[in-house]
Structure formats: structure tokens, C-alpha cells
């Protein structure tokens, strides 16, 4: 019976990690998400994209854009 319980726990854990992975992938891909800066093609860090959903530029270009205004 111990084996049966172990298999059950393992399956539950697998299902949980699958669900978390699916959620992580969805969170990583909002409708509008630029992985690269529109101005200089530099990769935009995940933290910046999470903080500013739909952000289009890297920090440097954002600064340039704001100075140009
Ligand atoms: Zn840039």
C-alpha cells in the first residue's frame, strides 16, 4: 500500500508543477509584450516587462524618448 501512496503523491506533485508551469508561461506572454527594444533591439529584461506590461523600449531608449518630449 505504501507504493500506491507514493505514486499518488508523485502524480499530484507532477500535476501541480504542470499547472504552475502553464501559469508561468501564460504570465510570460501577455497580449502585448515586447521582448526586444523597438528602438535599439536590446533585450528587455523580464523584470522590466513585468513591472511595465506592454513596455516597448529598454531603459536607455525610454530615457531618450522622455528627453525628446
Ligand atoms: Zn533600446
From TrEMBL:
Transmembrane segments: none annotated. GO terms for molecular function: zinc ion binding. Keywords: Metal-binding, Zinc, Zinc-finger. Pfam families: zf-dskA_traR (PF01258). InterPro entries: Znf_C4_TraR, Znf_DskA_TraR. Residues 36-67 form the Zinc finger DksA/TraR C4-type domain. A zinc finger (dksA C4-type) spans 37-61. GO terms for biological process: positive regulation of secondary metabolite biosynthetic process. It comes from the Bacteria. NCBIfam families: C4_traR_proteo. This is Zinc finger DksA/TraR C4-type domain-containing protein. It comes from Halopseudomonas phragmitis. The lineage of its organism: Bacteria, Pseudomonadati, Pseudomonadota, Gammaproteobacteria, Pseudomonadales.
Amino acid at each position: 500500500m505504501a507504493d500506491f501512496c507514493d505514486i499518488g503523491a508523485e502524480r499530484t506533485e507532477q500535476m501541480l508543477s504542470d499547472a504552475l508551469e502553464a501559469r508561468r508561461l501564460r504570465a510570460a506572454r501577455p497580449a502585448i509584450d515586447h521582448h526586444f527594444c523597438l528602438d535599439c533591439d536590446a533585450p528587455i529584461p523580464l523584470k522590466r516587462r513585468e513591472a511595465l506590461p506592454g513596455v516597448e523600449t529598454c531603459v536607455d531608449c525610454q530615457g531618450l524618448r522622455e528627453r525628446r518630449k
